[in-house]
Amino acid sequence: MFTTLAMLLSLTGSAAVTPAASNNQVDVALVLAVDMSGSMDIEEARVQRMGYVEALRHAEFINAVTAGLNGRIAMSYFEWAGSVNQTSLVEWQLIDDAEDAAAFADRIAARPVYTRRGTSISNAIAFASKLIATNPYDATRRVIDVSGDGPNNLGPPVDPARDAAVASGTVINGLAIIIRPSGSAGSLDRYYADCVIGGPGSFVLPVRRSEDFAVAIRQKLVMEVSHRQPVEQVVPVQLGPSTDCLIGEKLRPRLLDRVYPELDR
């Protein structure tokens, strides 16, 4: 009898600790890396910010979160330009219901909106990768969500930063803002497809009108949370000629000479 009672107590104890241990598990750890470079005017920056806020509060996003295997995700958010604006950082938060998502959206909305000079997608990816590596949750998937309206033109080249993140097991998706893109040769969505996004199932969505911001951001967040692929407006990475991933730097030749003097252009 003693042995049977001990076994029952042992099983009861194991059952009691299992839910607590699983509280650390999430379906995805998702970093939102949002471009606030000077090529956007302040109104466009506000529209983009509110697009994220509205998407996080939307029932479609909440439904995607709760429909997952664990029914919860972890999110972090920051804004970047030529460098990362660390004062914009919203630290990791567990989201498993509408109240959590609204609280996260409120933290984003409370930050002041302003733009800065330069576009360093590489610095944004590197910073997001550090956040992913140090996040406190056990995530089934790890995703960096990068928005931007121009090619990399400051900091290290973008494709090595992308490759390092993908090699660590992180997927990078892109939102190419083509409302009033900063000057570059070729299409920005193609640049994002060839130089920025990476990993299994990665994708880029273009935004061509300010009024489409909220819908596009919500669509992308839902796909990232639910691990769905976009039905349309996809830029397949394997099709067409490869993009010059240094095109942004080459549009700033003095910078290119100073930072990459060994390049044969």
UniProtKB/TrEMBL annotation:
Signal peptide: 1-15
InterPro entries found in the cross-reference section: DUF1194, vWFA_dom_sf
Pfam families: DUF1194
Keyword annotations of the record: Signal
UniProt cross-references to Gene3D superfamilies, sorted A to Z: von Willebrand factor, type A domain
The protein's name in its UniProt record: DUF1194 domain-containing protein
Species annotation: Rhizobium herbae
